């Protein structure tokens, strides 16, 4: 069950478009409905191309970028939204940088609200989008003009999304199930339920998992898209009814994974990459947040001085679960901007990594990534 994730500037019609595609309003909070503004993650699903497909709708407002970053992981295809009557905006740029840095290779650019834009402005918006996506992961993505209100272009968008999902192919199963918790709640008589996107492996009723951080738990029940399941495969939205844990122990940012499969660490070695048109610099004295899965943690960065094997030693204010190859986003807390993406090279590095060892780790991570693709 693949996942489509939205991205784009605030009030450009992401949630309205998801509702037009699925028949479900992804906004869950009364405040969201009253203000017409997505604040937290929203979820919906619909058949696309003959398959049940989950949608993760993210907020576009700058103040809620943290929530956006919690929802964009595990996406198979991005639905990148730009309003025809407004064109490219600041969060368009930041959201595209996130997709680029996380390597979301498949996507569709939806030019929304075409019913509100005159032909000349629509043409200018299309040119604007073309210029901004040049040199990014979205450069080759198909562009579809739509109106969620009139229905114009919706059938074409469904067909384009189906084609991108087919091209993306099934999610690889490494046999190591992991699920970053994005929501947890209690149900009277049933206990605690945690939801998230399952990656890397399958999950079955009766399996034992470890909360990172937290206790071991047992999976008492599973649902995907509100249907009871005995087993859920990788790349799917999942709701797991868990035994052995309290609701307070399952905050957003908790990772559910096989016992002993993860390293809890407050220091790891990473390779950084930078979005197009950026300065490509990280200051050792800067204040940063790492967004890893659904977790957010304050960090310090120490860049290596070796130009041939550049790397960064990331020191966090608390322990987080990481493994080699995990990707994350680095955000400058002062400028409140995404400045880099990263790939974990070593969860438990020495304080002065050898450049030759760094080069070997970079090669190993890239080789493993190519094999999984």
Textual characterization of the structure:
- By secondary structure, this protein is an alpha+beta fold.
- 22% of the residues lie in helices and 37% in strands.
- It is built from 7 helices and 21 strands.
- It has helices spanning 14-22, 30-35, 65-71, 90-102, 119-133, 154-168, 355-372; strands at 3-8, 42-48, 51-57, 77-83, 107-112, 143-145, 178-187, 191-199, 203-204, 208-212, 216-224, 227-229, 231-232, 236-243, 255-257, 263-273, 288-292, 295-303, 312-322, 327-332, 337-346.
- A 6-stranded mixed β-sheet has the order 2-3-1-4-5-6, sandwiched between helices.
- β7 and β8 (191-199) form a beta hairpin.
- The longest helix is centred in the C-terminal third of the chain and has 18 residues, at 355-372.
- It starts with a strand and ends with a helix.
The gist of it:
The protein has seven helices and 21 strands.
Q: State the end-to-end distance.
A: 17 Å
Contiguous runs where pLDDT drops below 50 for at least 5 residues: 31-35
Measured by DSSP, the beta-strand proportion falls in 35-45%
What is the chain-wise order of helices and strands? Answer: EHHEEHEHEHEHEEEEEEEEEEEEEEEH
Secondary-structure-derived class: alpha+beta
Enumerate how many helices there are, as a single number. Answer: 7
Instruction: Count the beta strands.
Output: 21
Strand arrangement within the widest β-sheet reads 2-3-1-4-5-6
**C-alpha geometry:** globular
């Amino acid at each position: 069950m693949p996942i489509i994730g939205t991205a784009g500037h605030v009030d450009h019609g992401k949630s309205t478009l998801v509702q037009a595609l699925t028949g479900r309003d992804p906004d869950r909070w009364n405040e969201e409905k009253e203000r017409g503004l997505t604040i937290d993650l929203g979820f919906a699903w619909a058949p696309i191309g003959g398959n049940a497909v989950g949608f993760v709708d993210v907020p576009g407002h700058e103040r809620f970028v943290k929530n956006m970053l919690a929802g964009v992981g595990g996406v198979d295809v991005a639905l990148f939204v730009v309003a025809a009557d407004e064109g490219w905006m600041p969060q368009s740029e930041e959201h595209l940088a996130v997709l680029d840095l996380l390597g979301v290779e498949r996507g569709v650019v939806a030019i929304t609200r075409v019913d509100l834009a005159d032909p000349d402005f629509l043409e200018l918006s299309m040119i604007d989008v073309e210029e901004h996506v040049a040199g990014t992961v979205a450069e080759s993505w198909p562009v579809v003009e739509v109106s969620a209100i009139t229905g114009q272009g919706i059938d074409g968008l469904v067909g384009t999304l189906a084609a991108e999902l087919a091209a993306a192919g099934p999610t690889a199963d490494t046999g190591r199930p992991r699920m970053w918790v994005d929501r947890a709640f209690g149900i009277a008589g049933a206990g605690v339920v945690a939801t998230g996107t399952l990656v890397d492996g399958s999950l079955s009723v009766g399996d034992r998992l470890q909360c990172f951080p937290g206790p071991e738990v047992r999976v008492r029940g599973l649902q995907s898209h509100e249907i009871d399941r005995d087993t859920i495969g990788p790349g799917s939205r999942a709701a797991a009814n868990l035994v052995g844990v309290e609701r307070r122990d399952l905050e957003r940012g908790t990772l559910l994974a096989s016992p002993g499969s993860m390293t809890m660490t407050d220091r790891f070695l990473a390779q950084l990459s930078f979005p197009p048109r950026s300065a490509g610099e990280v200051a050792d004295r800067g204040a940063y947040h790492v967004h890893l899965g659904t977790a957010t943690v304050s960090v310090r960065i120490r860049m290596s001085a070796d130009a041939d094997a550049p790397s960064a030693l990331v020191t966090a204010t608390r322990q987080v679960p990481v493994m080699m190859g995990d990707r994350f986003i680095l955000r400058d807390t002062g400028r409140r901007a995404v400045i880099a993406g990263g790939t974990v090279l070593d969860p438990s590095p020495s304080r002065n990594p050898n450049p030759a060892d760094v080069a070997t780790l970079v090669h190993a991570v890239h080789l493993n990534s190519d094999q999984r693709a």
